[in-house]
Design a protein that fits this description.
alpha/beta; 5-stranded parallel beta sheet; 15 helices
Length: 408
C-alpha cells in the first residue's frame, strides 16, 4: 500500500468524541441512473424511464390532492404576477411556470421549525410556506428588500445574487446543530447557480460539518440563455454531490409526489444526523427568464411545446382522475382559493405604492453613521425643494388590515 492508497485525513463521518474519520463509499453517494418518479407518463427529455407509477394502494391520496391544490393556486399566482409585471406593477418577475411542482413540494417537505432559503425565482415556494403574496413580491416591486419577517416565517429573504443563499443556509443549519436544535435548512438554487463559487463552498462546508441542509437544484435547462451543456460536463448535477462526500438524488421535477417524497427523505436524513443531500430536480422553465428576456433568441418553440406536455399540474391531475381521486368539489375549492389569492394580489399590488423615503436609511445600521444621516438629510432637502408628493402621501403601502396568513 502506498501513501496515496490510504489517507487518514480524508473527510467523512466522524465518530463522536474522536478524531477518526472514514471516507464514504462513492457508490453509496451516486444518484440514480434515472430520475425518481411516482406518476405515469413520459420521462423528461434526456433521461430514461423508471419502473413506472406506484400501485394504487401505495398512494397517499390526501397528499396528492393537497399537492394538486397547491399547483392550481401556484399556476394562477404565476399568471397573475406576470400580468402585474406587464402592467408595470412589478419591476421584474422571474416566473416559475412549469416548475411549480418543485416549489410547492419544497414548502410542504418542511416542518414549522425548519428554514427555507429561496432564490429570486422561488416566490411561489415562499407563498406556499405561508408568506402573504403581497409580502412575497415586495422585493420584485422594488419597495424594499424583504416584505416579511424572516425569523417569524423561517424564510430567508429572496436572494437575487446567484447562490449566495447557500452558505447562509449552511451557517444557520450548523448553528442550529451546535445549539442542539433539530432544525433543517432547505436551500433552493437553479442550475446556473451551481456554476458559482458559493455553491462549491456551501456544499464543502455542509459535508465536512455534516450540517442538516438539503440543497434543491431546479435544473430548468437554461441559465438565462446558457444551456446546461455549456455550464457543466458532469453526467448530472446530482453527480457533483459525490465530490463533496454527500449523497446525490435525481428526481423528475415535474412529478410533484416524487419531488415531495425525495425531499422529505432528505430532510429527515438531515434531521436525524445523516448530513446534507444534493437533490437535482429535472424540470423546465416554460416562460422567459424574466419579463426582460426574449427566450426565442436561444431556444426553439418546439422544445417548449414538448415540455408543456410534461406540465406538472396536468400530470398530477391526470393521475388523480385515473385513480378516481378528483371530484368537482375539490376542483371548485382549489379554484376559489386561487382566485382569492389573486384577488388580494390585484387589490394591493394594483394600487400605487406610498413609500416613506426615510426607510432607505432606517435599517442599514443599528446606530446610523454620520454619513448615513447626512445622506438622509440631503434627500429630505431635495424632496422638500421638489414640492408635495403628487400621490398625496409618503406613508407605506400597507393596507389597514395586516397581511393575512393565507398560504397557497
Amino acid at each position: 500500500m502506498t501513501v496515496l492508497d490510504h489517507d487518514p485525513g480524508r473527510a467523512g463521518p466522524a465518530a463522536p468524541g474522536t478524531g477518526t474519520t472514514t471516507a464514504p463509499d462513492p457508490a453509496d453517494l451516486l444518484p440514480e441512473a434515472s430520475p425518481h418518479r411516482v406518476l405515469t407518463g413520459d420521462t423528461p427529455a434526456g433521461s430514461t424511464p423508471s419502473d413506472g407509477a406506484k400501485p394504487r394502494d401505495a398512494v397517499d391520496a390526501d397528499l396528492w390532492r393537497l399537492l394538486h391544490r397547491r399547483l392550481v393556486v401556484g399556476r394562477r399566482y404565476n399568471t397573475a404576477a406576470t400580468a402585474l409585471t406587464r402592467q408595470g406593477r412589478l419591476a421584474v418577475y422571474p416566473s416559475s411556470t412549469g416548475q411549480e411542482a418543485c416549489q410547492v413540494a419544497a414548502a410542504l417537505a418542511l416542518t414549522d421549525r425548519d428554514w427555507l432559503f429561496p432564490s429570486y425565482r422561488d416566490t411561489l415556494a415562499v407563498v406556499s410556506r405561508g408568506v402573504d403574496p403581497v409580502e412575497a413580491l415586495t422585493l420584485l416591486r422594488g419597495d424594499r428588500h424583504s416584505g416579511w419577517d424572516p425569523r417569524r416565517r423561517r424564510v430567508a429573504p429572496l436572494s437575487t445574487p446567484l447562490a449566495t443563499q447557500l452558505p447562509h443556509a449552511v451557517g444557520l443549519a450548523r448553528a442550529a446543530r451546535l445549539r442542539g436544535d433539530d432544525t433543517v435548512a432547505l436551500a433552493m438554487v437553479g442550475d446556473g447557480g451551481t456554476s458559482e463559487g458559493d455553491f462549491h463552498e456551501a456544499l464543502n462546508f455542509a459535508a465536512v460539518w455534516r450540517a442538516p441542509v438539503v440543497f434543491l437544484v431546479q435544473n430548468n435547462r437554461f441559465a438565462i440563455s446558457v444551456p446546461l451543456a455549456k455550464q457543466t460536463a458532469a453526467p448530472t448535477l446530482a453527480h457533483k454531490a459525490v465530490g463533496y462526500g454527500m449523497p446525490g438524488r435525481l428526481v423528475d421535477g415535474n412529478d410533484a409526489p416524487a419531488v415531495h417524497e425525495v425531499l422529505v427523505e432528505a430532510v429527515e436524513r438531515a434531521r436525524s444526523g445523516g448530513g446534507p443531500t444534493l437533490v437535482e430536480a429535472l424540470t423546465y422553465r416554460i416562460d422567459a427568464h424574466t419579463n426582460a428576456d426574449d427566450a426565442g433568441r436561444y431556444r426553439d418553440e418546439a422544445e417548449v411545446e414538448a415540455w408543456r406536455e410534461r406540465d406538472p399540474l396536468r400530470l398530477l391531475e391526470d393521475a388523480l382522475r385515473a385513480r378516481g381521486e378528483l371530484d368537482g368539489d375539490h376542483l371548485r375549492r382549489a379554484e376559489e382559493e386561487a382566485e382569492a389569492l389573486v384577488g388580494r394580489m390585484r387589490e394591493h399590488l394594483g394600487a400605487d405604492p406610498r413609500l416613506d423615503p426615510d426607510d432607505l436609511f432606517a435599517h442599514v445600521y443599528a446606530e446610523p453613521t454620520p454619513q448615513l444621516l447626512e445622506q438622509r438629510d440631503l434627500l429630505r432637502a431635495e424632496l422638500a425643494a421638489a414640492g408635495p408628493d403628487p400621490a398625496g402621501s409618503t406613508g407605506r403601502d400597507v393596507p389597514a388590515d395586516a397581511p393575512s396568513e393565507r398560504a397557497a
